[in-house]
Amino acid sequence: MKALLALSAGIDRLNTWIGRCVGWLVLLVTLVSAYNAVVRKAFNISTNGLLEIQWYLFGAVFLLGAAFTLKDNAHVRIDILSSRFSNKTRALIDIIGYVLFILPLVCFVLYHGSLFVYNSYSIHEYSADAGGLLRWPAKALIVIGFALLGLQVLSELIKKADYLKHLRAEQSS
């Protein structure tokens, strides 16, 4: 179990580092958005590339930040219900949710998303809009984000299993 906990800690460090870096993307997307708004209003100039980079950065914040959010337990929950359960029950519900819902979704997106990115990359797909950007980098963010989420789910499963193991050991003592 020590090796699994070390793996979990490594995944947590990775997603914490990425989450902190992604936080800076919020500043960057704000600056790009402000610049785009100013030049559009003041000089009647706008490009689709600027709009698309805004969308790409905004998407990156959410896709790359999802694993960090899960690690910090900052995702949306129905606290009215979960607060009534014991820690053991919450851990079991989390495990069931991860295994039955999140991991299958992650596997689906990784498989089909990889094909999606590969096809876009192989045909050098660009936005249909004039001055638009390459599409495959934005599509790759989907796969990378879900890969990080899958790793964090693995980390959470390890931590929940360790918690339940120690809980059982305490109860049997």
From TrEMBL:
Keywords: Cell inner membrane, Cell membrane, Membrane, Transmembrane, Transmembrane helix, Transport. It is a multi-pass membrane protein. It is found in: Cell inner membrane. InterPro entries: DctQ, TRAP_DctQ. It comes from the Bacteria. Residues 30-160 form the Tripartite ATP-independent periplasmic transporters DctQ component domain. The chain crosses the membrane at residues 21-38, 53-70, 91-118, 138-158. Part of the tripartite ATP-independent periplasmic (TRAP) transport system. Belongs to the TRAP transporter small permease family. The complex comprises the extracytoplasmic solute receptor protein and the two transmembrane proteins. PANTHER family: 2,3-DIKETO-L-GULONATE TRAP TRANSPORTER SMALL PERMEASE PROTEIN YIAM, SLL1102 PROTEIN. This is TRAP transporter small permease protein. It comes from Limnobacter litoralis. The lineage of its organism: Bacteria, Pseudomonadati, Pseudomonadota, Betaproteobacteria, Burkholderiales.
